[in-house]
Structure formats: structure tokens, C-alpha cells
Amino acid sequence: MRLDRFLSEMGKATRRETALAVRRGEITVNGAPADRPDLRIDENADAVVFRGERIFYKKTVWLMLNKPQGVICATEDARGQRTVLDLLPPEERRRGLFPCGRLDADTTGLLLLTDDGETAHRLLSPKYHADKVYEYRAARPVGEEDCLRAEQGIELSDGTVCLPARIERLTPLTGRITLREGKYHQIKRMFGAMDNRILSLRRVSFAGIELPPDLPEGAWRPLTDGELERLTSAAGRGKMHKK
Predict the structure, then answer these.
(1) The domain spanning residue 20 has which CATH number?
(2) Beta bridge partners of 49
(3) Is residue 104 annotated as a catalytic residue, yes or no?
(4) E-state strands within 74-218
(5) Per-residue pLDDT tens for 125-156?
(6) pTM for this one?
(7) How many domains does the chain have?
(8) Which residue in the list 35, 104, 106, 225 is annotated as catalytic?
(9) Domain that includes residue 214, residue range
């Protein structure tokens, strides 16, 4: 792989910026200064140092974000509204990341960001049964009958029938709901079909990945090796590349 392509794919520099960094002596390969931006390197073996930082090759990226309220799940917004990518540093945004699934603007919690389109597609498909768990607060008490309706598959106002879901009541007004699909505003529409209303919603788990209690709203981190393996299993794929 060319050196300038390597740094571009890793989100560290554009090809033009790489050429300038080469002229300034800011890049070394295996300890020797790089003499041209199109230098051929082995991205998996050669030691590339850019402005004092060792850059490791990562074929795909998986991050978790604790999404705050009012931020939209999009890569950009024509109206200038803040998106989840605006919460990341420039080098991560350059990787072409996108949300794996979506949360409403007023829904908070766990969101995965990646540049791995194939695995993301699998995780969002009901075929692979990647559970999504949310904590909710409702406007009125949720009863046993509501739980049974959810387990049987609630029919929405437009005639759409949801896959069976599980509601775990923690108090009369709060609890957890587990879905295996992600229809538009699904939980809000399900509660509407039960003559109820969602007051707050927070995703705490997706495909076996749990939202860490010590990750503040608006903060992010790469997935761990163990979390990547759980995604591998949920998506029915072989071993995934590490971040």
C-alpha cells in the first residue's frame, strides 16, 4: 500500500498533507525518514511513525458512543443540527464512519459507529436476532397485559406487526424492553398502541455489547477485543479485524 493512502485511510492525513509532512521530515518508516509520499509499505508489518505517533493499520473501525439527547444519528445534516460524528475527533471522522442503526434525537445511550458496512447490515437484520435493550420511563403504569401483548407481537396503528419483544418491569412506570428489530420510532409507536406514552428512552445494550456505566454522555471509545468477538458472533461472521 502507498504511504499516503495508508495515512489517509487511517484518518491521519490527506494525500496532500502527507506530501507536506514528507518534505518536513515528519514521517518515518522502520526508523528511516520517508522520502516520498507514494512509498510502498507493508501496512501490516512496517512501523510507520507520523509526527511522533506510531500508526497501526486497522482494516475496520468499531466505536461505541454514549449518545446524548438532542444529537441526531446522521453523518451530516443540511440544517446544521449537531450529529453524532461531531462528537468525534477529526481523525476518526475522516475514516468515513456511520451509525450502526439509529436512535431518535431525544433517545440517549449506546450507539455503535463503524466503517464496516457488511457487518453493520447483518447486525441490523432481524435474521440475525441482534437484541437491542432499552430502559424506558412511561407516562402510565405498564401492566401484565401490556407485557403479554409485546411478547405476542404488537400491531401498530398502520397495521405493521412487530416481532415479539420482551418487557421487564422494574417499577410501574419504568423498565427494560428488548427488541430484535428497529422499525421507525418503534418503541414509541408500540407504547402508543398500548394507550401509553414514552417519556424517556435510553439504549443500554446492542448485540451483546453493554453500555459501560463509567462512559459519560457524549464520550466514546473503541470496542474491546471481547466486544468485537461478541459482534462477530451476533453477525454470524468470522473473526473481525481489530480497531
Answers:
(1) 3.10.290.10
(2) 28, 54
(3) yes
(4) 98-100, 108-114, 132-138, 166-169, 174-179, 198-206, 209-210
(5) 877 778 999 999 999 999 999 999 999 999 99
(6) 0.80
(7) 3
(8) 104
(9) 62-126+208-235
